[in-house]
Task: inverse folding
C-alpha cells in the first residue's frame, strides 16, 4: 500500500479549516487509518472542529475494545461528536461549529468506510471512478426527490449546505460502507473543495495518468482544483492498494 495526503488553503479562502489524518501503520485494532474532515463555523471554529474531530476519533480508536470496524468507528465518532458539541456549548466563539467526516481503514482486501457530511470517498480502477459515500447535503436530497438533475448539482447555489455534521447536534449518525478491493485499485478521499471544482471523470483522468506516483497525482489534483477556481480549502488522501 502507498498513501499520500495533502491539504491546501485554495485560491479564495483566508484560512484552512480542513484537516487530514493519514496513517499507514496500526491505530488501535485498525491496521491503518485515513480521515478527511472539513470544518465549518466562524473565526477559528471550523479549524477547531475538524482538528478536534480527528484527535478525538484517533484517541478513542487507540483504546477501544470493540470487535468490529463498524462498532469501533461508531464509538469513536460518537465520542468526537459529544466532545465538539460540548466545546461549542461552553465557548460562544465556537458556537455552531461542526465538521464533515470521512474515515476509512483497509483490512486484507476489504475497505471499511464511515461518512458524515459531503466529504467523499471514491474507488478508482482502470475502467471507472465510483463514488462510495453519499453526500448528506441539501442538493443531494433535491436530487433524490427529483427536484434537480445530478448534472446541475455542482453549480447549484445551495451546494454547500450540508444536512448532517459532527458536533452540531447532541447525537449524529454516520453511514457505513464495506467495499471489496482488488490489486491496483486507488482510493481517493477528499473534501468538497476538490469535488466541487472538478468532474469525477477529470479526477479519474489525473489519477490514472499519475497512477505510479500518488504524490504527483495528489499535487496535480490540488493544482487543477485551484486552476478551476479554488473556491474552498482542498484536501485529499490517495491510497494505492
Result:
Amino acid at each position: 500500500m502507498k498513501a499520500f495526503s495533502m491539504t491546501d488553503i485554495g485560491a479564495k479562502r483566508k484560512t484552512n479549516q480542513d484537516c487530514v489524518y493519514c496513517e499507514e501503520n496500526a491505530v488501535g485494532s485498525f491496521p491503518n487509518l485515513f480521515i478527511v474532515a472539513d470544518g465549518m463555523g466562524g473565526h477559528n471554529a471550523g479549524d477547531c472542529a475538524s482538528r478536534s474531530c480527528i484527535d478525538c476519533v484517533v484517541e478513542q480508536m487507540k483504546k477501544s475494545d470493540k470487535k468490529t470496524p463498524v462498532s469501533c468507528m461508531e464509538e469513536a465518532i460518537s465520542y468526537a461528536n459529544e466532545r465538539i458539541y460540548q466545546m461549542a456549548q461552553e465557548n460562544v466563539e465556537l458556537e455552531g461549529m461542526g465538521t464533515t467526516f470521512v474515515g476509512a481503514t483497509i483490512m486484507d482486501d476489504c475497505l471499511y468506510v464511515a461518512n458524515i457530511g459531503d466529504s467523499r470517498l471514491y474507488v478508482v480502477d482502470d475502467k471507472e471512478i465510483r463514488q462510495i459515500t453519499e453526500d448528506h447535503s441539501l442538493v443531494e436530497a433535491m436530487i433524490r426527490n427529483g427536484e434537480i438533475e445530478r448534472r446541475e448539482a455542482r453549480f447549484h447555489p445551495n451546494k454547500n449546505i450540508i444536512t448532517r455534521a459532527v458536533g452540531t447536534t447532541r447525537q449524529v449518525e454516520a453511514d457505513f460502507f464495506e467495499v471489496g478491493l482488488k490489486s491496483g485499485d486507488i482510493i481517493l478521499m477528499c473534501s468538497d473543495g476538490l469535488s466541487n471544482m472538478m468532474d469525477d471523470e477529470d479526477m479519474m483522468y489525473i489519477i490514472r495518468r499519475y497512477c505510479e506516483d500518488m504524490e504527483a497525482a495528489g499535487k496535480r489534483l490540488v493544482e487543477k482544483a485551484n486552476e478551476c477556481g479554488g473556491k474552498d480549502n482542498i484536501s485529499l488522501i490517495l491510497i494505492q492498494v
